[in-house]
Design goal:
The chain is mainly α. It has one domain: Up-down Bundle (Growth Hormone, Chain: A). The protein contains 25 helices and no strands. Helix 3 runs parallel beside helix 16. The protein is globular and about 60 Å long. 54% of the residues are buried. This is Major facilitator superfamily MFS_1.
Length: 454
């Protein structure tokens, strides 16, 4: 079937593109579509830490050993495999919800309801008494969160016009990071608050997770208030005569075949896997590192909530500025180098010991550079996905590959940290960025990024 003429324009990155004034740059963030995308970004970022760093702190306080905590990152497998069920999101309808809200919004509401249920299940677990039940709960949170990500990514790519792409990506990533901060620092403060009421630690952690489940409703309300993307509506009309199985197969086959037909497709896939690996490898052990160094849970939460939040916001919008102003390849160089070098701030923190200023600097550097790198990386992935018939499938494939570094390659981080010690571990985290930068240089010479901007 011939795809409708609804291709998604890549984000601004051409030297010939007009430069927006600072007033125009600010005003674009107030556009309704951009605000909707920002709120959905918060909803996407919220659950990630609940099966990741926040859960790691819960397990650390429960006395679980470091190696087991490092291996627990494998519960993030659904983020890597989500492309397998993304064709269902592109092609199938949710009874009642799709008819009432549309193709993308129906799936948004459905995935968020499942996510709430999964977080409540995890809240009922105990890492000491039933670690395997904790693993199951965390796995379900990751699976439902990954499903929400599939829909949100497709909604974002399809709903934003070219003039709002850079602002949308910056706002999305900034809000995504805020969601992560809420489910890390916010969750830790909630746990401490519940402990302050007299609850035992296990019960306080459970109620902390219940509070995070309630926060998911922000995304649900946003989905209900949003408008179905016009590109999605046209794609739905183009495939209305096809059966469900045919739509699923077309979405799956079309997404894979279209991407693999690209020049240097395998090198592009490798670059996607490795670009954020430096971030993921260090991020896997950041929370255990800070606690192990001697900081309290509230010390970590206060720095992340305050300084980290500000750095994330500024970094997200700085990344949007870079993506809007510079060519795509140059933007990727800026983001890639910054997020790698930021790891050295944690090496310095390891040598400085329990020093609040050193912790604030390290968290600031990590959040600021990670936000810049993520915005630029999202701009790159969005430029690769232009067909609304399988936007969800193709974007899910790319982000799933990016999650390989966070999930599988990072699973050894605990063993490396234990073998090398914290200062050298974060130096290694910086060095693992080199393969992605080598691939970036090679793809740039091959004209890959120039082709995306035509």
């Amino acid at each position: 079937m011939t795809a409708p003429d609804t291709t998604v324009a890549p984000p601004n990155g051409s030297d010939a593109a007009p430069r927006a004034s600072w007033r125009e740059s600010i005003a674009v963030y107030l556009q309704p579509r951009v605000l909707i995308v920002m709120l959905l970004g918060f909803s996407s970022g919220l659950p990630l830490a609940l099966s990741g760093s926040t859960l790691q702190i819960w397990m650390t306080e429960s006395g679980i050993d470091l190696r087991a905590i490092g291996l627990f990152v494998l519960v993030g497998t659904p983020y890597t495999l989500k492309f397998l069920w993304a064709p269902l999101v592109d092609a199938l309808h949710i009874p009642l919800l799709t008819r009432r809200f549309g193709r993308r919004r129906g799936w948004l509401v459905f995935s968020q309801l499942l996510l709430i249920a999964a977080i409540l299940l995890l809240a009922s677990t105990d890492p000491v008494k039933a670690p395997w039940f904790v693993a199951l709960g965390a796995l379900l949170v990751a699976a439902t969160s990954a499903t929400q990500d599939i829909v949100v990514d497709a909604f974002r790519v399809e709903s934003l016009p070219e003039s709002e792409q850079a602002a949308g990506m910056a706002g999305y990533v900034a809000a995504y990071r805020i969601g992560m901060l809420v489910s890390t620092a916010g969750a830790l403060f909630m746990v401490s608050a519940f402990e302050g009421t007299g609850l035992v630690r296990a019960a306080a952690w459970s109620w902390g997770y219940v509070s995070m489940a309630v926060m998911v409703l922000i995304g649900t309300i946003t989905a209900l208030a949003a408008t179905e993307p016009e590109q999605s509506v046209r794609a739905e009309q183009a495939t209305r005569a096809e059966g469900g199985f045919a739509r699923v197969m077309n979405a799956a086959i079309g997404a894979f075949s279209e991407f693999l037909a690209r020049k240097d497709a395998l090198a592009v896939l490798a670059f996607i896997v490795l670009f954020k690996f430096t971030d993921a490898f260090s991020g896997t052990m950041t929370a255990p590192f800070v606690i192990d160094l001697g900081f309290t849970r509230n010390d970590y939460a206060a720095i992340v909530k305050g300084v980290g939040l500000a750095a994330t916001l500024i970094g997200g919008f700085a990344g949007g500025f870079v993506a809007r102003r510079y060519p795509l390849a140059a933007s990727l160089w800026i983001g890639g180098i910054l997020q790698a070098v930021a790891n050295l701030s944690f090496s310095w923190l390891a040598l400085a010991g329990v020093n609040q200023w050193a912790l604030a600097f390290a968290i600031t550097a990590e959040n600021f550079t990670s936000a810049i790198g993520t915005v630029i990386f999202v701009a790159y992935l969005s430029a690769l996905c232009r067909n609304p018939l399988h936007t969800a499938t193709q974007y899910a494939l790319l982000t799933a590959l990016a999650a390989v570094g966070r999930t599988y390659l990072s699973a050894s981080a605990g063993f490396v940290a234990e073998a090398t010690g914290w200062p050298l571990f974060f130096v290694i985290c910086m060095l693992v960025a080199l393969p992605s930068l080598i691939l970036l240089a090679w793809l740039q010479r091959r004209g890959h990024f120039a082709a995306l901007q035509t």
